């Protein structure tokens, strides 16, 4: 990634339309000070875990402060976290109380002691910032909540009241939360609150005239664009972009990109995702293993086994195989998905995230 960010410098295209990189669209949607100040005030009393280590913390019953309860909402950890078997083992722990909140019974909700009925986005007011674009939108419900379903915000308000939390943050209405969500001004955006945004419009939050690195004063120590980063060298021994080859115990490197049938694990319960998931492999590798299209296969490593179906294609390189992420456990007779083969201790060099593609597997026919 650092190498890609440096291309405009090397090509001399700074300040030209269509060049440069937006690191995160989230920065286009700043929260109001009312919202961010409350978050910062409470940060000192919170424990923070790296999300890929959650299963380790749940299993660490000997900790001075063991985790005894979890609330799972807007998330399906069994289907999305690395080392799926470890996550399942953690959620199976009878001493862990699990409250779940979702719109359907998924792989994670099966382990919950209590499941609260969440409302879908069709059933409540909300505002939506971007995930890959620069537009802000607002939506109103198109149907009333089904059964006893409630928006997350109302569930949190009711739980807070039951637990005796009386701080203003726990009683704030949805309208006030929408007012707090984004820092909007009449001068810059034409409105002071996202509630004033018509539902048939989308507001561009991106300055189309902005040119990346066109400002000569940068926030780097040298106030210049730096091809070599002393800060990255000090922290990660990565002052310059560098390719580092990896080698695992398995014969084939496993890629697990997004699927066009799902959004991560969302829609994993749809019939379009049923059945054995496809493993794409190069025809040369298939010939060596005596594999033909449609063959049932087991891919495995020291963490587990997953049953899949072969698809021969030149789209993957020799020595590389591919299985889309986000499937649910019912798609394999082994009860596991591709996430079971990914270690939660394999980390990215920068950021300490999960290195999903540092995974190697062996292949055998069923």
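-> sequence recovered:
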């Amino acid at each position: 990634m650092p190498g890609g960010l440096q291309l405009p410098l090397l090509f001399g295209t700074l300040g030209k339309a269509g060049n440069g990189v937006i690191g995160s669209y989230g920065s286009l949607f700043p929260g109001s000070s009312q919202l961010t100040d409350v978050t910062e005030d409470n940060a000192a009393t919170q424990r923070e875990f790296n999300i890929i280590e959650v299963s380790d913390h749940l299993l660490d019953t000997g900790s001075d402060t063991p985790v005894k309860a979890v609330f799972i909402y807007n998330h399906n950890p069994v289907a999305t976290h690395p080392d799926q078997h470890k996550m399942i083992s953690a959620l199976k722990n009878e001493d862990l109380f699990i409250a779940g909140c979702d719109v359907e019974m998924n792989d994670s909700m099966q382990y919950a002691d209590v499941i609260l009925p969440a409302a879908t986005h069709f059933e409540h007011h909300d505002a939506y910032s971007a995930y890959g674009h620069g537009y802000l939108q607002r939506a109103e419900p198109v149907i009333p909540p089904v059964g006893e379903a409630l928006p997350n915000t109302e569930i949190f308000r009711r739980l807070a009241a039951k637990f005796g939390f009386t701080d203003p943050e726990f009683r704030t209405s949805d309208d006030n939360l929408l007012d707090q969500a984004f820092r909007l001004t009449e001068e810059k955006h034409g409105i002071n609150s996202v509630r004033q945004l018509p539902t048939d419009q989308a507001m561009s939050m991106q300055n189309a005239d902005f040119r990346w690195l066109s400002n000569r004063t940068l926030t780097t120590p040298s106030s210049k664009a730096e091809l070599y980063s002393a800060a990255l060298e000090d922290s990660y021994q990565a002052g310059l972009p560098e390719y580092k080859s990896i080698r695992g115990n398995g014969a084939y490197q496993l890629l697990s990109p997004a699927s066009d049938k799902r959004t991560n694990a969302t829609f994993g319960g749809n019939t379009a995702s049923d059945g054995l998931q496809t493993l794409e492999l190069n025809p040369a590798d298939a010939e060596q293993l005596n594999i033909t299209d449609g063959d049932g296969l087991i891919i495995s490593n020291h963490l587990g086994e997953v049953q899949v179906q072969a698809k021969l294609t030149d789209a993957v390189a020799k020595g590389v195989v591919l299985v889309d992420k986000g499937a649910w456990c019912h798609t394999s007779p082994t009860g596991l998905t591709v996430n079971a083969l990914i270690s939660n201790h394999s980390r990215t060099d920068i950021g300490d995230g999960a290195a999903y593609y540092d995974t190697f597997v062996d292949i055998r026919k069923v």
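DSSP finds eleven helices and twelve strands in the chain.
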